[in-house]
Amino acid sequence: MSYMAQRVADFGTTIFYEMTTLANEHQAINLGQGFPDFAAPDFMKEAAVAAIQSDINQYAPANGRPALREAVAQKVADLYGLQVDPNTEVTILHGATEGIFATVMGVVNPGDEVIVFEPFYDSYVPAIKMAGGIPRFYTLRPPDWQIDEAELAALFNNKTKLIIVNTPHNPTGKVFNETELKLIANLCQTHDVIAMTDEVYEHIVFDGHQHLTLYNLPGMAQRTVMVSSLGKTFSVTGWKVGWAVAQPELSRAVFRAHQFMTFCGAAPLQEAAVTAVSQPKAFYTELTEFYTHKRNFLVDALKSAGLSPINTSGTYFVMVDIAKLGFADDVAFCRYLTTEVGVAAIPPSAFYSTPADGAGLARFAFCKEEKTLAEAAKRLQRLQKL
Ligand code: PMP
Ligand code: GLN
Question: pLDDT at position 385, please?
């Protein structure tokens, strides 16, 4: 008898854990898993310490601390012009990862189809499978990652329940434009499909691109669950404070799943998150400048090492075309880079239903201190000698 349930037997180990372990074993500069190596803002740390000192140390309400739900409602009002009720339309979750899982568990029935853009964030497909759903993939292709209307429309049918839209998109750096979001919105309404948006990189967009949320398109507020979190915007990926915004019936669906997964996240961090989510718009403008600088630095370093970065418009990742470098595939390249060159990257084949589709790509993260990126740039020069 196998102790492991069939439900999880095929999942393997997440590529983020695998590559970070390999990077640590070889003292490689970790440009793989996306987490900042610099300090979180002082105002965040002070707010967390104050929350613990004032004994906010017991369970939060299952749908989240009221002040944080109010702050999230205010944030989406200020930034996107949305009017949502903090009591019935906002749920606080243990990071966006739980938001994704609770949404999928809350709305997908066994046999329902879920449309996913690939390359995809690695938790989507396991969530769909654990709900008994069937993933249907739209493959985004480099270098533009554009959407073909007929190809996308062909994925919708009367079994489609949900589409997952991650913009800005990890790992490609694509920022979905208005035409693409309108196309998705029309298809959702024609086929009565729910959308889950994953907007964790909502404040990291470059070159004048604008982050647009599907929730805001006509007819979409009643059928969209908007998921986001603190991790990327406030450089606290380990805090795991996230939220889902949706009309009351959809919020109830998310909540019903969430209450029996975690019941609630860390109460003092939810309290500290109020300070974060209430930052003025200037905070987000500065974040864009901060990451534009880092992106430019890494892109230049990759080019000067003879690599071919693909244009990235958002997130803190850049994809590189490695097809002509002579490696068997992306896994071979990323392992070589980590163990021999001393820089870790993520092999994107883990983000495709057909791994061969990612075999000619590698993903690098630039959410790192300048000195980390400079050391990576130096080490990458070793590739010139290949
Ligand atoms: N979605 C995407 C696209 C991500 O890159 C991440 C990264 N962690 C998450 C969701 C998960 O966010 P959280 O850390 O808040 O769970
Ligand atoms: N979001 C991060 C990335 O894409 C990692 C998330 C994780 O480790 N689960 O690199």
Answer: 67
> What is the mean pLDDT of each successive set of 10 residues along the chain, which is 386 residues long?
92 92 97 96 97 98 98 97 98 98 98 98 97 98 97 98 98 98 98 98 97 98 98 97 98 98 97 97 96 98 97 98 96 97 97 97 98 98 81
48 assigned to some structural domain: no
User: Is the CB of residue 242 below 6 angstroms from any atom belonging to ligand 1?
Assistant: yes
**Residue 198 CB–ligand 1 contact under 6 Å:** yes
Judged by its nearest atom, the ligand closest to the C-alpha of residue 36 is 2
Which residue among 200, 226, 236 has the greatest number of ligand 1 atoms within 8 angstroms of its CB, and so is best to mutate? Answer: 200
For the chain, first and last CA: distance in Å? 49
Sign of CA dihedral 367, 370, 371, 376: positive
- Is the pTM above the cut of 0.90? yes
The answer to whether 311 and 360 have CB atoms below 8 angstroms apart is no
Indicate which atom in ligand 2 lies nearest the CA of residue 363: 10
Q: Which residues contact 97 (CB under 8 A, 6 or more apart)?
A: 123, 240, 242
* Domain co-membership, 272 together with 289: no
Distance from residue 123's CA to the centre of ligand 1 (Å): 9
Whether residues 340 and 214 share a domain: the answer is no
Last residue of a domain, one of 279, 304, 335: 279
For residue 320, the enclosing domain spans: 6-40+282-385
In a domain, 50, yes or no: no
Q: 244 in ligand 1 pocket by Cβ < 6 Å?
A: no
Q: Which residue's CA lies nearest to atom 9 of ligand 2?
A: 16
